[in-house]
Amino acid sequence: MLGIGPYIPHYAAPLSKVRSAQLDPYVTTLKMLAFSRLLMHDINIVASPCRVLTPQG
């Protein structure tokens, strides 16, 4: 079973130096889900209801 939450950048993380225009948290999360599915095609990915971290909520 696999659970991936939204990517939230941290100032001390290696990707913190990348400009936010190049690293969209929504797209990064979708890419990680797709990459995980390619590597582990028969794994269960948790689909839990959660709020998306956007200014609109």
Give the helices and strands, then pairings.
Layout: H1 25-39
Q: Could you explain the architecture of this structure?
A:
There is one protein chain. The chain contains 1 helix and no strands. It has one helix spanning 25-39. It is elongated.
Quick synopsis:
This protein is mainly alpha-helical and 57 residues long. Helix content is 26%, strand content 0%.
**First and last CA, distance:** 27 Å
Count of discrete domains:
1
Helix/strand order, N-terminal first: H
Q: What is the residue-averaged pLDDT?
A: 75
Q: How many DSSP helices? A: 1
Proportion of residues in extended strands = under 5%
Shape: elongated
Helix/strand class:
mainly alpha
**What's the total number of strands?**
0
Helix share of residues? 25-40%
Largest sheet: none
Low-confidence stretches: none
> For the CA atoms, what is the radius of gyration?
13 Å
Q: Which keywords apply here?
A:
1 helix; single chain; mainly alpha
